[in-house]
Amino acid sequence: MTRLELRVDVAAPPATTWAALTDWERQGEWMLGTTVRVTSGDGASEGSGLAAFTGVGRLGFTDTMRITAWEPPVRCAVAHTGRLVRGTGEFVVVPRGDARSEFVWSEDVAALLALAFAPGVKWSLRRFAAFAREYPA
């Protein structure tokens, strides 16, 4: 496993970035080929379950996760619990003043998967920055 860490500057206050980031049902608006749903709990606390389907049509896979850390408006960590994707992931919002923030995405992934995965995540993070900038405060 290798730690993949990617960052993007966001022209939105940290609280807005956090709200946009943790709006699980809208994640598909910025994350390439992915839809997310809450499967247990409220999606806003430790122990809540999430399922992310990545693919096109019916061709793809579902990544199940459990929230292991919930520290609004700064950090959310998940444990991947599926058969295909294992390890941990983390979303961190770093304040950059009152009106800006930085979103840090990190995941433990297989080294070969990191090479294939990184370009799509980079593209998605650029879309996230635009999504968060327009997100209702």
In brief:
The chain has 137 residues and is α+β, with helices and mostly antiparallel strands.
Question: Biggest sheet: strands side by side, in what order?
Answer: 1-7-6-5-4-3-2
> For the report, how would you describe the main beta sheet?
7 strands, antiparallel
Nearest-integer average pLDDT: 93
Number of individual domains: 1
| Global outline | globular
Can you tell me the CATH topology?
Alpha-D-Glucose-1,6-Bisphosphate, Chain A, domain 4
Distance between the termini: 37 Å
Question: How many strand segments?
Answer: 7
How would you portray this structure in words?
By secondary structure, the chain is an alpha+beta fold. It has a single domain (2-134), classed as 2-Layer Sandwich (Alpha-D-Glucose-1,6-Bisphosphate, Chain A, domain 4), CATH 3.30.530.20. Helix content is 23%, strand content 46%. The chain has two helices and seven strands. The chain has a seven-stranded antiparallel β-sheet, covered by helices on one side. Strand 2 (34-40) and strand 3 (49-56) form a beta hairpin. It is globular and about 40 Å long. The relative contact order is 0.27.
